Amino acid sequence: MTSTEIVGSAPGIASAGGVEVRFTPSSLDVLTELLLDAGRRRVFDALLHMGAWWPDRSRAGATVVLEPRVGGLFFESGDDGCGTLLGRVARLLMPEEFAIEGSFGLDQPVCALWTVRVDATGPQATTLRGRYRAFGAFDDTVRAEVAAAWKARYAALVHYLAA
User: Fold this and answer.
1) What predicted TM-score, i.e. pTM, was given to this entire model?
2) CB distance 30 to 138 below 8 Å
3) How far apart are CA 41 and CA 124, in angstroms?
């Protein structure tokens, strides 16, 4: 659903066009549940060491860093000091839950939250429940790309834990 409104020109502005305002409400909700053959603490530690397994890099040679504290940054950094802020730690309750707010590298205005809950289901078995929720002007192509990216991220985590 798109709502468009044309607002008339302000006094003293020589323009017949006006200002066009568009609002396109759209959201994403990616839910993931994994049963992992690893202890809860090991899974949580792996999540906090994202630089070791996070598959996304916008530039060759960039590193991914997560500062594991409330307010800590989640970012991609290059050797030249350039990089991308992916998010900020909004909640950290070790070893069971964390949340990161941010754009996660999307190149458009977006408000997103990734939450992860890690529960022990046995001595060497852990259930990970992840949820990525975002609000922005997403079309079907972006939705499909984001869903594929989260699938690849969780697959990279599983591969890292199996190594």
Assistant:
1) 0.83
2) no
3) 10
Cα distance between residue 64 and residue 55, in whole Å = 9
Distance CA 58, CA 73 (A): 17
CATH number of 26-162: 3.30.530.20
- Cβ proximity of 111 and 136 under 8 Å: yes
Between CA 21 and CA 54 the distance in angstroms is 37
**H or E stretch covering 141:** helix 140-162
Distance CA 15, CA 39 (A): 65
Name the DSSP class of 8.
P
Q: Which residues contact 136 (CB under 8 A, 6 or more apart)?
A: 26, 27, 106, 108, 109, 110, 111, 112
- At 23-78, the pLDDT tens digits run 566 889 999 999 999 999 999 999 999 999 999 998 888 999 999 999 999 999 98
Separation between Cα atoms, residue 112 and residue 106, nearest integer Å: 10
